Amino acid sequence: MKRFTLPFLIIALITGVYGFGGFNLWATEAARVLFLISADLFVVSLFAKFLFKKNQDQVTQRVES
């Protein structure tokens, strides 16, 4: 989810301009919904990026069963 932060931002900006830009087309409502979804996913991925940083001090160990 962390690697999708920038694509979600780009999608949110494009659909926001299209959906709320005053265009009178049939797909304007769909663009508004896509904007809200992608903006929410952007915020979630931004929180994930800052809250769950990769800890360099951790050592991975293989678990054998």
Describe the structure.
- This protein is mainly α and 65 residues long.
- The protein has one domain.
- It is 62% helix and 0% strand.
- It contains 2 helices and no strands.
- It has helices spanning 5-20, 28-51.
- The longest helix is centred in the middle third of the chain and has 24 residues, at 28-51.
- The protein is elongated and about 60 Å long.
- The two termini are 30 Å apart.
- Pfam families: DUF1328.
- It comes from Leeuwenhoekiella aequorea.
- This is Putative membrane protein YtjA (UPF0391 family).
Outline of this structure?
This protein has two helices and no strands. The protein is mostly helical and 65 residues long.
Write the layout of secondary structure elements.
Blueprint: H1 5-20, H2 28-51
Helix pairs in contact: 1-2
Pfam family, one: DUF1328
Protein name: Putative membrane protein YtjA (UPF0391 family)
Organism: Leeuwenhoekiella aequorea
Shape category: elongated
**Sheet with the most strands, sense and barrel status:** none
Oligomer: single chain
Per DSSP, the total helix count is 2
Query: Strand-residue fraction?
Result: under 5%
Unreliable sequence segments: none
Write down how many β-strands occur, each being a DSSP E stretch of 2 or more residues: 0
Give the termini separation: 30 Å
The sequence of SSEs as H and E is HH
Query: How many structural domains does the protein architecture include?
Result: 1
Query: Helicity level, as a percent range?
Result: 55-70%
> What Rg, in angstroms, do the CA atoms define?
18 Å
Structural class: mainly alpha
Protein name: Putative membrane protein YtjA (UPF0391 family)
Organism: Leeuwenhoekiella aequorea
InterPro entries: DUF1328
Pfam family, one: DUF1328
